[in-house]
Amino acid sequence: MKKLAAILSSFMMVTMLAACGSEAGTEEKANGSATGSGGDEKKTIRVVTDAAYAPFEYLEGDKIVGFDVNFLNAAAKEAGYDVKLEHVGWDPLFVELKSKRAAAGISAITIDEERKQTYDFSSPYFLSINKILVPEGSDIKSADDLKGKVVAVQSGTTGQAAVEKLLGKNHKDIKKFENNNLAIMELINKGADAVVADNAVVEEYAKNNPKQKLKVVEDSDTFDAEFYGIMFPKGSELKADFDKAIAEILDNGTYEKIYKERFGTSPDIEKLKQAK
Amino acid sequence: MIKVQALRKSFGANEVLKDINVTIKPQEVVVVIGPSGSGKSTFLRCINLLETITAGHILIEGKDITDKQTDINKIRAEVGMVFQHFNLFPHKTVLENIVLAPLKVKKVDKDQAREKALSLLKKVGLEEKANVYPDSLSGGQKQRVAIARALAMEPKIMLFDEPTSALDPEMVGEVLEVMKQLAREGMTMVVVTHEMGFAREVGDRVLFMDGGYIVEENIPKHLFESPQQERTKAFLSKVL
Amino acid sequence: MDFRFDIIMEYAPYLLKGTLITIGLSLAGIVIGTILGLFIGLGKMMRNKYLAFPFTVYITVFRGTPLLVQVLLIHFGVVPFFIGETHAVAATIIALSLNAAAYIAEIFRAGIASIDRGQMEGARSLGLSHVQSMRHIILPQAFKRMIPPLGNEFIVLIKDSSLASVIAAPELMYWGRAMSSQYFRTWEPYLTAAVIYLILTLLLSILLHSLERRLATE
Q1: Chain C contacts of B74, Cβ < 8 Å?
Q2: Is chain B adjacent to chain A, meaning 3+ CB pairs within 8 angstroms?
Q3: Which DSSP symbol is given to B109?
Q4: Fold designation for A35-125+229-267
Q5: What is the dihedral of CA B5, B11, B12, B16, to 10 degrees?
Q6: Which residue of A172, A179, A189, A212 to mutate against C (max C Cβ within 10 Å)?
Q7: Where does the sequence pass through the membrane (chain C) (predicted)?
């Protein structure tokens, strides 16, 4: 009886070892071809997003697409990671990172001091500024003209903060919506006089929907420029890898190519590099 | 007073009344007997159009109630009906049950309607029950209230659809007593009943119905003592 | 767990205002929905199948689609189509009323159908018209039986009014969400909103219970 057990267990050990050996072998090969850096182990990281923020991240069928997705893939490839991107929603995104269930979050998240206290950010990858979306022929020419008008915003965005700075916090003329799509629909249906949101959002919308006869108003004196960063849990080791990768793709033209494909214009790479 | 000509009534494919012809004279008391399912209740319900008529005519005082021009509510106001299950309105007091139709249909003024209702209650022996709800009455009392309610409209004809069938035996007498009194006062009545004693004592004429036809009709004495038809004989031998 | 009462205090005036609007939306929905529901319920009970058909369709559509979908369609579609601009409060009242009317129509229909046929026959045999019989005999009795299911429907309606936050009607939930997205907090805004909704629904059920008792003793 004892003898039989011994034979069985040694047989199993041999098989297991053989299996491990062959697995390790293929993995090494995959790593080698993907990163060119040989023996490094390629890790899959879980990244969360709120895919309701075109053109940065939104759903096409069940696929998450957008500028952030293209950028993230390029940066992750450069840094040597595989990415599993998951749509969880805006508020849950912060919870996931705080509890470290996700390795990173990318969702056009503005780098600000308050968030920096709880999370780490990569170096900036996108320059954004709030702009005003109004119907053609509107008398709103600057941010100051928003006073006395009904303004629709996405709840919890810097656009909301910027408008509240002008009109007053929780002012009755500010309509807060779950996302920018609803805010813009409110504008189109004449329930609001203007929408304040990130330039990429409003410009993309005005460009793609010429029939709605909307125009974009800039006011860089009133609205501050913001930078988006990839967000990590506090003290994440990924930050250093991604900072290096971002610097690399800013320099080697990969970033410019992605940006141009999406927005049709050239990015201000110098400004991105200067910001930290 | 009532003239029924070639009356037919079907429920879907089931023909319940097949060619009914009968004439009822003023002040006559006609009792309708027959086995259950013979169509006698349906016949009665046709007389005030609680059932829609499939074919034929019913004339009440010369007016054809099957004619679409006839205001059926006006006809019904003149034809009182008493149901097996009383159909009192449980959310209204006895008095309210009685004055409702005079107030709403005849537009009688309130005091007059009330006075009339109280005198009718006295007539059926229930004047002390004016302000209670029907639920607190016995079956016999309920049926007497129902009769008073129908009488409040001062109908020319009263229809009774098995008025004592749902009552405990000891209460049958009090209801029949009220009906006898009505008959004595000269009310024209059509009564569907299983009370053969009542039919014999009060009826001017008895109709025996079976299978959707009036099989035989005669004065009570003749019909009960020397029935002509086999079916009448068979029925009477079971119930007498 | 740290619970920040200070942010609840900060938002108290907004939550209070929101609560008043929630009450207003719900009351309007209850009143309009009940009146509309009565007519639709009666319409569905019409003997003529062709006339009753549209009412059946109405009930099927409004009971068979999510209220959130109805709210969005009415806010961004129906209301702008008629008045040329959006109006969140009006859209919410319309959506709540139309939706509740479908459920209330069924409650009415069931309530009326539950009244013994003899009641209608008794009334008609006395010469009352169909409308008079309905008004004096059938509806008062049916109404008593409808109170419990109507109460349930009204409670659902109060809770469902929270969907108006999606179209930025400044009701209770809207301010709860505003508070949540400003401070990235979960417990304070939503627990506060939950407690307020609970108080509202409790008050309503107490009210309906006393009404039911009063009618029962009558």
Answers
A1: 127
A2: no
A3: -
A4: D-Maltodextrin-Binding Protein; domain 2 (3.40.190)
A5: -60
A6: A189
A7: 20-43, 55-83, 89-108, 187-208
Q: What is the pLDDT of residues A14-44, one digit of tens each?
A: 555 444 444 443 333 333 333 444 445 678 9
CA distance, residue C137 to nearest chain B CA (Å): 7
How many residues appear in chain C? 218
pLDDT at A257 over 80: yes
ipTM, interface predicted TM-score of the complex: 0.90
Mean pLDDT, 10 residues at a time, chain C of 218 residues: 86 95 97 95 90 96 97 94 92 97 95 94 94 93 91 96 94 91 83 97 94 78
pLDDT along chain B (240 residues), means of 10: 92 91 94 92 93 92 87 89 96 95 94 95 94 95 96 95 93 94 94 93 94 93 93 90
Spell out the CATH class of A129-225: alpha beta
- Placement of tokens 């003529």 in the chain: C48
Q: How far is C165 from chain A (nearest CA, A)?
A: 8
- In eight-state DSSP terms, residue C135 is I
Work out the percent of chain B whose per-residue pLDDT is above 70.
Answer: 100
pLDDT, residue A22, reads 44
At A60, the amino acid letter reads E
C and B touch with 3+ CB pairs <8 Å, answer yes
Output the pLDDT for position C207: 93
Answer positive or negative: Cα dihedral of B61, B66, B68, B71.
Answer: positive
| B169 upstream amide cis, omega within 30 of 0 | no
Cβ contact, residue pair B77, C137, below 8 Å: no
Tokens of A150: 């009904």
Q: Cβ separation of C127 and B88 shorter than 8 Å?
A: no
Length of chain B in residues, anyone? Answer: 240
The secondary structure element, H or E, covering residue B148 is helix B139-151
Whether C184 and A91 lie within 8 Å, measured CB to CB: yes
What residues of chain B lie within 8 A of the CB of C126, using their CB? 76-77, 80, 100-101, 105, 149-150, 153
Nearest residue in chain C measured CA to CA from A179: C166
For chain A, residues classed under CATH 3.40.190.10 are: 35-125+229-267, 129-225
Q: What is the pLDDT, as a whole number, of residue B233? A: 93
DSSP track, B210-223? ETTEEEEEE-HHHH
